[in-house]
Amino acid sequence: MLNFSSQSLFFISLLLFAVGAIGALLLGKNDRKANAWGNMLGCMGSLGGILAAVRVLFWGEKFSVSFDSSFPLIRLSFHLDNLSAFFMLVISLIALLASIYALGYAKHFFGKYNLGTLGFLYNLFIAGMLLVVTAGNAIFFSIVWEIMSLASYFLVVFDRQDKNNVKAGTLYFVMTHIGTAFIILAFLLLYKLTGSLDFSVMKNNLGQTPVIFKNIVFVLALVGFGTKAGIIPLHIWLPSAHPAAPTQVSALMSGVMIKTGIYMMIRIFMDVFPGAPLWWGLVILSIGAVSSLLGVLYALSEHDIKRLLAYHSIENIGIILLGLGSAMVFLSLDMQALAVLGLAAALFHTLNHAVFKSLLFMGAGSVIAKTHTRNIEEYGGLIHLMPQTAFFFLIGSMAISALPPFNGFFSEWLIFQALFSGINSAGLLASWVFILSAGALAFTGGLAAACFVKAFGTTFLARPRSEEAKQAKEVDLSLRIGMGTLAGLTLVLGVLAGPICKVLVRVAGSLGNLQNAQAAANFGIFSSHLKNNFAALSMPGILFFLLLALAVTFVLVYGTTRKQKVKIGRVWDCGTDLSPRMEITATGFSRAIITIFGGILQPTKQTAVEYRDADMRYFKKTNVVSLKTKDVYGSYLYGPGQKLVERFSRYTKKIQSGNINAYILYIFMTLIALIIFLVI
Amino acid sequence: MLILTWTIQLLAIPVLSPLFTGVIRKMKARMQNRQGASIFQPYKDLRKLFNKDEIISQDASWIFRFAPYLIFAVTLLIGAIIPIFSTYVANQYLSNFLVVVYLLALATFFLALSGMDAGSAFGGFGSSREMTIAALAEGGIIFSFLALAPISRSGNLFEIAKTISTLQFMQFMPITLAFAGFMLALLAENGRFPFDNPATHLELTMIHEAMILEYSGKRLALIEWAAANKSLIFMALAVNLFFPWGMASAGDGSVLLALLWFVAKVSVICAGIAFVESTIAKFRYFRLPDLLFTSFILSVITIGLITFF
Amino acid sequence: MHISRKSSSLIYLYVVQSVVITLALLMLTLKNPSWPLILVVLVMFTVKVLVSPSFFFKLIQKHQVRFSLSSYLNTPLTLIGVVILTAITHASFFRPIAGLVSVAKGNTLLLAVAVILISLFLIINRRGALPQMLGILSLENGIVAFAAVAGLEQTPGLQLGIIFDIFVWVVIANVFASMIYKQFGSLDVASMTHLKEE
Amino acid sequence: MILLSLILIPLFSSLASWQVKKDVRFLGWIIVTSSVLELVLATAAIVEVLTKGVYAEGIYFSLDALGALLLMIVAVIGLVAGLYSVGYLQMERAKGILGFRRIRQYFTLLHLFMLAMFFAVITTNPVLTWVAIEATTLSTAFLISFYNKPSAMEAAWKYLMINSIGLLLAFFGTLLILSINSTDSTRFVDWHTLLMNASSINPAIAKIAFIFILIGYGTKMGLAPMHTWLPDAHSKAPVPISSLLSGVLLNVAFLAILRFKLIIDTAIGTQFSSSLLIFFGILSVLIAAFMMLGQKNYKRMLAYSSIEHMGVMALGFGFGGVGIFAALLHMLYHSLAKSVLFLSSGNIFLKYSSTKIANVKGIFSVLPVSGILFLFGFLAATGVPPFGIFITEFYILFAGIASHPIAAVFLLLALALVFVGFFRNVAAMVFGEAPSKIKKGEAGRWSTWLPSILVIILIGIGFYLPHFIRTLIDSAAKSYL
Question: Which sequence spans correspond to the domains of chain A?
Answer without folding.
Answer: 275-564+586-596, 633-679
